[in-house]
Amino acid sequence: MARIVRQNRHSPQWRRPVALVSFSLVALLLTGTTSFAFTTPTASQGIVHGTNKKNIRLTALDGKAEIPGPTRNADKLICSFDETDFSGRTSWPYTAADLNRLDNTDDSKFYDSPRMVTHIDDMAIESLTEFYKNTFEELAEQSDEEATKKTIDILDLCSSWVSHLPVVDATSSFQYGNVVGLGMNQEELNANPQLTSSILQNLNIDPKLSSLDDESFDVVAMTVSIDYLIKPLEVIQEIKRVLKPNGVALISFGDRCFPTKAVAMWLQADPIDRITIVASYFHYAQYDQEANKEGGDDSNDGKDEVLYKWKSIDAYDLKDEPQEAPPKPSMGEIMSNPALGFAWMNTASAVQKANNCDPLFVIKASK
């Protein structure tokens, strides 16, 4: 287990340790101003060599072995979770109060009117789309299909009028098969051009995905909606059921929400807490909570009922490192070359926009 600190991030929280976060195989040291500090390096940890995400290799700190590592999105990875990272090894720790909301009225009334808006800014959307693209390309590389392009079936939970999926073109290594959107407003779903079909369903009333077959999707995505679920355990268990072997669940979230509909513990949490909350949903969904209620849970007496195990549960920070604006030209330089002044203003504005974009995190669970 490694206690890690990620330095020079976007908010003060990143300058304090992430309690009990461990890398199962490797400890990533990223280039630039970002670094991880480890308390007790071991031979099972390693470092990343190179900045080309497609050609990263990982070498154990003792120099004796190369460890296969992530080839895409590696610069966004901040930590990986295992069972030692949570206070209770198997028992669901959250109470009804944790999942309570200020507005517990019927959600269908709240979402009755279509909202053709996005809940993250343009730069966050661009980062999410790029993350999806990298993930889909990874799935294509891992596929044993004989077809030229890997066909990816996607379930978009809590969907709306846009899914932020990358555009497929002639250079893509994948193509879309079924893209099913499940949401709360039919007008929004009908307006989504990337969906091949849609389901109108309130997961807070019925968390079961009964209309969907086992192992029918390569990807299950949920964008900035996990904070509204009052039955997250059941939803995550259903996500696992409908995922194909080697499929991935991608749960993204930021700092915006409808506060009256978000669960209590989400509103009280900082970004690190929220990362841990979402990761813990996947962790606890691995166990039979009904069996644990009968006395198995954390006693380690052999009664724990394991339903399944995720291959990995990883957290990603999609917001880029803060950039510095170029130095402002002197008045003399601007007078002699007015175009230089306009160029500086445009560049400084772009840097400020990038630095002020919405934070966005993704928890990725691999089946």
Automatic annotation (TrEMBL):
Domain Methyltransferase type: 177-251
SUPFAM superfamilies: S-adenosyl-L-methionine-dependent methyltransferases
Pfam families linked: Methyltransf_11
Gene3D superfamilies: Vaccinia Virus protein VP39 (3.40.50.150)
Domain of life according to the entry: Eukaryota
Coiled-coil positions: none
GO molecular function, one term: S-adenosylmethionine-dependent methyltransferase activity
UniProt protein name: Methyltransferase type 11 domain-containing protein
